[in-house]
Amino acid sequence: MKVLVLTGSPHLQGTTSFLADEFCDGAKEAGHEIVRFDTARLDIHPCIACSHCLKNDGKCVYDDDMSQVYPHLLTAHIVVLVTPLYYFNMSAQLKRTIDRFFSVDSVLLKMSKKLYLIAAGGVKDNWAMDTLKVNFHSLCHYLHWQEGGMLLVLGSSSRKDVENSKYQKMARNLGSGL
Ligand SMILES: Cc1cc2nc3c(=O)[nH]c(=O)nc-3n(C[C@H](O)[C@H](O)[C@H](O)COP(=O)(O)O)c2cc1C
């Protein structure tokens, strides 16, 4: 299957990038095709709600790096969102990417896909991931996509907190079990 991984951290060697690497390695070993975009490194303009796409066959007013993402978003069977917890939600870098789904919304709504979520945050309390979980459920509900699975890692402020931990294996298993 084709798997689109969208990461949202500016740290290429950080906590969530490490978990994404493990997930991708597991998925590759299981024979899946992986396409990964580290969205914080891309030039992606936030949606300005200008409705240009609604009047122009889904073409966004911005011709930026989303043009690399769209073809894979439309053809992937599985989409994986990977984000550090920023103020108890996904990072702005990932959110701006998801907001740009808007221009292809009508197509996405008719497609059968599975969504996964991988997130890490420094706080140890269970409630810290509540907003992110609701957001994930809402996205699946709205897009009519199947909920694949979530790996939510609490108490992890940096990469060393997840390296050689049970979360490393869990991320790999999530990928190999697709
Ligand atoms: C702007 C900012 C906001 C953050 N907000 C939260 C938060 O609300 N809850 C939390 O548990 N950790 C928070 N953190 C900590 C990060 O989620 C944590 O360090 C994570 O491991 C970073 O992952 P990364 O290395 O993949 O970017 C925040 C960090 C930053 C820079």
TrEMBL record:
Pfam families: FMN_red. The keyword NAD does not apply. Keywords: Flavoprotein, FMN, Membrane, Transmembrane, Transmembrane helix. It comes from the Bacteria. InterPro entries: Flavoprotein-like_sf, FMN_Rdtase-like_dom, ISF_SsuE-like. The chain crosses the membrane at residues 69-88. Residues 1-123 form the NADPH-dependent FMN reductase-like domain. This is Flavodoxin family protein. It comes from Clostridium aromativorans.
